[in-house]
Amino acid sequence: MSIIEVKNINRGFGHGHGRIEVLKDLSLSVEKGTFNLLLGPSGSGKTTLLNILGTLDQPDSGQVWVYGDDITTYSDNQRNALRKTGMGYIFQSVALISNMSAYENVDFFLRINKINYQERERRILECLKFVGLDKRMHHKPSEMSGGEQQRVAIARAISHRPELLLADEPTGELDTATGLKVVHMFKKMVEDTGTTIIMCTHDRNLIHFADHIFEMEDGVIING
Ligand SMILES: Nc1ncnc2c1ncn2[C@@H]1O[C@H](COP(=O)(O)OP(=O)(O)O)[C@@H](O)[C@H]1O
Ligand SMILES: [Mg+2]
Fold it and tell me: Ligand 1: which residue has its CA nearest to atom 26?
């Protein structure tokens, strides 16, 4: 069963002679409960595509079905609701709140999602443990390495238990060993909980871990 269907989307930026077409008549289908890589060089359109899947941006034309609904017809409210309850998003730059500890960063996100105190506490501990940071939960981002901060961002993105996790180059700024740890963590999540993950990367070393690779070049999928 597919959780995402993209049909013939186009997305460009700018006007007149300065306009560039970034996604060109792109289609893809993602199976539920799989670990997918969106593989391509910098500038190939990965972030543009992921933002559209995450309802942060809209295509100029074409359709995007998520959980069987065409989200290009959604109102802002419907898009917000889907983002809050239906998906987790990990941004290319980590974007933790700097004056909050790891614990508080995850807690803040769950409070926005109106989860009650006891359930929040349970989930924060569970997610920080999952990413191996339960012992550092009271540390602030400035007291953690880049890899640890990235793992807090992952804990935050999975804390409301989304069925769909979108991750934009989450290993981009990590050393190879830490990057591999993150990818193993994603694979385990897919296996243990049936989450669907779509992760952007330009790193060919990660292709062995994925169930499916969509290879992008210059705004089109050339393979997958
Ligand atoms: N908001 C925007 N305005 C203008 N150009 C953009 C915008 N977003 C992306 N682009 C351009 O689209 C191309 C693809 O960018 P992006 O999707 O970020 O690629 P990737 O994530 O694969 O590196 C790049 O040439 C980038 O400059
Ligand atoms: Mg990008």
Answer: 43
Number of domains in the chain: 1
Q: How crowded is residue 118: how many other Cβ atoms within 10 Å of its Cβ?
A: 8
Residues within 6 Å of ligand 1 by CB = 13-14, 22, 40, 42-48
Q: Check if the beta carbon of residue 216 is closer than 8 Å to that of residue 53.
A: no
Q: Which of 79, 36, 21, 10 is nearest to 214 (CA)?
A: 36
Which atom of ligand 1 is least distant from the CA of 40?
Answer: 22
Backbone region of residue 16 per phi and psi (left: phi > 0; alpha: psi in -120 to 50; beta: other values): left
Range(s) of the domain holding residue 81:
2-223
pLDDT averages per 10-residue partition of the chain, 224 residues: 96 93 97 97 96 96 96 94 88 86 94 90 93 93 90 89 92 82 89 95 91 97 91
Instruction: Name the one residue in this structure whose structure tokens are 């941006």.
Output: 57
| pTM of the shown model | 0.91
C-alpha span between 45 and 127 (Å, rounded): 31
CATH of the domain at 111: 3.40.50.300
What is the number of the ligand 1 atom nearest to the C-alpha of 202? 22
